[in-house]
Amino acid sequence: MKRQGLPLAAALTAALLSTPVPAAENGAPASLAPIPRFQEEAATAGIQHSYDGAWEFFVGGGVAVFDCNGDRFPDVFLAGGKSPAQLYVNASTTSGPLKFDRSGSGLSDKQSRNVLGAYPLDFDNDDILDLVLLRLGENLLLRGRGDCRFEVANRTLGFDGGRAWTTAFSATFEAGLAYPTLAFGNYVDRSAPGSPWGTCHDNALVRPVTTGTGAVSYPEAQRLSPGYCALSMLFTDWNRSGEASLRISNDRHYYRGGQEQLWAVPPGRPPRPYRKSDGWQHLKIWGMGIASIDLDVDGFPEFALTSMGDTKLQKLDDEADETVPIYRDIAFDLGVTAHRPYRGDDLKPSTGWHSEFQDVNNDGLWDLFIAKGNVEAMPDFAAYDPDNLLLGQWTGKFVEAGEGAGIALDRRGRGAGMADFNADGLLDLIVVNRSAPVSLFRNLGRGSADAPKPLGNWLAVEIRQPRQGNIKAVGAKISVKTGNRTVVKDVQVGAGHASGQMGFIHFGLGVAERANVRVRWPDGDWSHAYRVFANGHVIIERGAEKVKLWYPE
């Protein structure tokens, strides 16, 4: 059966034109999305950290954004490269300036070094978030003990962290397995003859095994071969089958004969790569990061792929069979190529890293953030390459707003995360930079630090499955409807660049004062509709008649 429909740009335009366009403050139609104003506050917030090291740390530089002490304010764990990784606990007051306290994490000095990235995940289902650390050397599973303390769980879980150069990660909960399946993406094999050229390491898939006593372990990894120097990966249900596949974005700078990859991961069976005979199209890019969102709410996610040169935005082709992953690039049509710096006189190509879809101005349209920065001193690519903030428009296209938003700093961005650090309903931004201080931007809305002003209305949603495995409901889909318009977002672990986050999921509501929220749980069951008011934090537990409300102190 073929997928029928309009091209995405036309479909988006038709859908959006059927929705009332918000009026500007003077009563005229708003032709452009409102631009939020960000203020850099890392130093005043107490964060002093940078990611550095030799060429092994030209890539990586991630941040995990998650709540490690149970207060529901997002904390951050920052990769340091050759320097120690560092945990910062959120001490911000509601709607006030950002504030973080440096904290010990329980790691030894040796364990905290050579960290390239970090992802939060409750891998032992105790309702306390854990961390997965990607390292140059042994990867670490850190079990959360509460109160922002961690212990290395490799030995107790039988997990072999390996000795590779690990630069990508994703996780999913497969049917019938209580613990998550973990995927690790590796970069150059430095010990191979001819390194680094054409010596990409194989990647690894690690499934949990339950013993006769009920204990769970990760005894053996399955090789995903060939590997093509992965820099980002994501478990995604790309075809609405209910079964996650693994997308891998690869860096063509070092591989020979490589390409972007999609692996089928059927439960209980060995994974296999999609090939040309399956309809998978050969695509070679300097792949850095992945972000996914269902822009036109047709059930099939789009994928933003960052690289050296430009950004791809892939959509499943309208004429493709749903069993055949044929994609077309719509980045140029929607204005998200981001192929050159938007500020300054350097016309050389950009270098994109972390990518993330969020609604930063609360207008109900998805925006795209891209962290930018030269690998080190590559003369063929832009030296001054500010981060992108591409705001979604009611026409279905995107418009660059990085300079107006105040995020166009002269730094080399790597990993990043967007979260509401001070619980004011506005998404803030943290960016890890190569050999430069971390950037921490507070979202001021339309105003200033002295007089911040709101943008649109918003809703923050947390979902939970407390009486079964996968408490955080990884693999679920959250649907938010206002009027005759619906937006959806998946609960995923992976993507970005060496950076992950877990916590409240943010939705902009525009002028709507109420919303209907439904959850499609990981096993495919849908919840009933929850009618909620705007501008609040709601917690939905599976099977509950009503939502719970959380009020930040």
TrEMBL record:
UniProtKB keywords: Signal
Signal peptide: 1-23
Ranges where the ASPIC/UnbV domain occurs: 473-532
Segments forming a coiled coil: none
Pfam family, one: FG-GAP_3
Record bears the keyword Signal: yes
Domain of life: Bacteria
InterPro entries: Crtac1, FG-GAP, Integrin_alpha_N, UnbV_ASPIC
Protein name listed in UniProt: CRTAC1 family protein
Native organism: Roseibium aggregatum
Taxon lineage: Bacteria, Pseudomonadati, Pseudomonadota, Alphaproteobacteria, Hyphomicrobiales
